[in-house]
Specification:
By secondary structure, this protein is an alpha/beta fold. The chain has one domain (about 1-190): Rossmann fold. It is built from 9 helices and 5 strands. A 5-stranded parallel beta sheet has the order 2-3-1-4-5, sandwiched between helices. Bound molecules: adenosine-5'-diphosphate. Adenosine-5'-diphosphate (ADP) binds near residues 57, 60, 65, 87 and 136.
Length: about 200
């Protein structure tokens, strides 16, 4: 089992890189943003509850995200592992994930932080706004999502750094180059796991 967290601000390329990781390592992609957007599309009870938060660029309450993710993850309990994309986003989510995985003796292996300058994030998201069809891809909400990331999600870097699982990757390079660096990081942590008792 291999559990990878792909971490970074909105617009850093988490989704693109997650898909490449999934393809190479045969893992299951769990994107909380995608899962929640799907709930909205399907007009489920969860979807109705989360729509306002997402449209407003705010984080969805932890208990809703955790419950939704939990039910998705158990569908794939026998998989080779997961790529968590856009999750965790708060300390409570990270602590709960650790507890859930520790119980099954399958901890988070590596947290890959994709680093991109703020003006570039903004440019990328504004550039894709028309095609994305996402209700939260407009100037005001994009700015808010970046601020929410800085205040509520960035502190997680310290949380995972203390666990010695954090690796930073330059996300300003071309997609394939970023992916090579990510693959190298995953291979390194995977080997470490095999060598250590
Ligand atoms: P991005 O990283 O570009 O903001 P996501 O698809 O990861 O895109 O998230 C879109 C929105 O979904 C967030 O702004 C937030 O409202 C909600 N969301 C996604 N994941 C979480 C999470 N782990 N905790 C709380 N809210 C979340």
């Amino acid at each position: 089992m291999l559990n990878v967290i792909i971490f970074g601000p909105p617009g850093s390329g988490k989704g693109t890189q997650s898909e490449k990781i999934v393809e190479k390592y045969g893992l299951i992609h769990l994107s909380t943003g995608e899962i929640l957007r799907n709930e909205i599309k399907e007009k489920t009870t969860i979807g109705c509850k989360v729509k306002e938060y997402i449209d407003d660029g705010m984080l969805v309450p932890d208990e809703i995200v955790l419950k939704t993710l939990y039910f998705k993850a158990i569908e794939y309990a026998d998989s080779a592992g997961f790529v968590f994309d856009g999750f965790p986003r708060t300390i409570v989510q990270a602590e709960t994930l650790d507890k859930m995985l520790e119980k099954r003796d399958i901890p988070v292996d590596v947290v890959i932080s994709i680093e991109v300058a703020e003006d570039e994030l903004f440019k990328r998201m504004m550039g894709r706004a028309e095609d994305s069809g996402r209700s939260d891809d407009n100037e005001e909400i994009i700015k808010k999502r970046i601020e929410v990331y800085k205040s509520q999600t960035l502190p997680l870097l310290d949380y995972y750094n203390k666990q010695e699982k954090l690796i930073s990757i330059n996300g300003m390079e071309p997609v394939n180059r970023v992916f090579e660096n990510i693959s190298r990081a995953i291979d390194f942590y995977q080997n470490k796991k095999e060598i250590l008792p």
